[in-house]
């Protein structure tokens, strides 16, 4: 039996829950959970914001732990190996996207907390391809958020061939944005943080920002028009996107990794005349996750975290819901 914390109805507090996972699949591994990040997507699933939640729901998709058991056909992982697991727990491995290395775009990919039980538990299972070995140089306590928030902001750097000479803006200094600042600074970019909180300027610069823009100040925004090769939006809020499109250089891209509540609109003329783009991306493939971990280990990049014991899971969720998390929360056994 696997012991977990689950919500039995939409919006309920999590309560202890046990379930029998059945036989271990031949290509699956079972992980003894040591740490698990608490992500805003867990809140969204608990509230059924996306209309795909099933209860009882065991959240948790930023898992770090030790391999406890492996299926007969598992080749790359061994019992006792420390690994991580993120949003995706399985993909088909045979479609054009999986076969081209874009497993994260597989149309039948399985979410770690979608129609199955996640990592707010003592054990969790997943297909071996999506279970990634953790480099020894990375602290396992803080590593969990890399497997969701970290790869979410790292993936666009790889997908769009961001260069060290690029000027990049990051909208929002929170759970996603603070990691984006760290990665882009280590990548060598000239990085600007956009925030509605002027009090965050000193911290933004410590995290890696070369410049800071108070996004409530129209003059400050005007001063950076035609400046950026890439602007990465990490916020879950509706903004005046036309302003940020104006801040892009020709061929610049406004890229979304934060889920904004309402449709994003733009006049087409500014896009056409300067060949600008609006885009979005999900988390990365297993290969990109491994690349991110290698990069994080080389540059000593880790999320800023607060830790809670597993039996404090509801306190952690409330802290995240209230917007007080700085910047990622991690449960520990």
Please outline what is shown here.
By secondary structure, the chain is of the alpha/beta class. The protein has 11 helices and 17 strands. The longest helix is centred in the last third of the chain and has 14 residues.
Description:
It is a single chain. With 333 residues, this protein is of the alpha/beta class. The chain has two domains: 2-148 and 284-332, Medium-chain alcohol dehydrogenases, catalytic domain (Quinone Oxidoreductase, Chain A, domain 1, Alpha-Beta Complex), CATH 3.90.180; 151-280, Rossmann fold. 26% of the residues lie in helices and 27% in strands. The protein is built from eleven helices and 17 strands. It has helices at 40-46, 96-99, 140-143, 149-159, 177-187, 201-207, 218-222, 241-246, 268-274, 286-299, 313-321; strands at 2-6, 15-19, 28-38, 63-70, 82-85, 88-90, 110-111, 123-127, 131-133, 167-171, 190-195, 211-214, 228-233, 248-256, 277-280, 305-309, 328-332. The strands form four sheets. Strands 3, 4, 5, 8, 9, 16 and 17 form a seven-stranded mixed beta sheet that branches. Helix 4 (149-159) packs across helix 5 (177-187).
Topology:
Layout: E1 2-6, E2 15-19, E3 28-38, H1 40-46, E4 63-70, E5 82-85, E6 88-90, H2 96-99, E7 110-111, E8 123-127, E9 131-133, H3 140-143, H4 149-159, E10 167-171, H5 177-187, E11 190-195, H6 201-207, E12 211-214, H7 218-222, E13 228-233, H8 241-246, E14 248-256, H9 268-274, E15 277-280, H10 286-299, E16 305-309, H11 313-321, E17 328-332
Parallel strand pairs: 10-11, 10-13, 11-12, 13-14, 14-15, 16-17
Antiparallel strand pairs: 1-2, 3-4, 3-8, 3-17, 4-5, 5-9, 6-7
Helix pairs in contact: 4-5
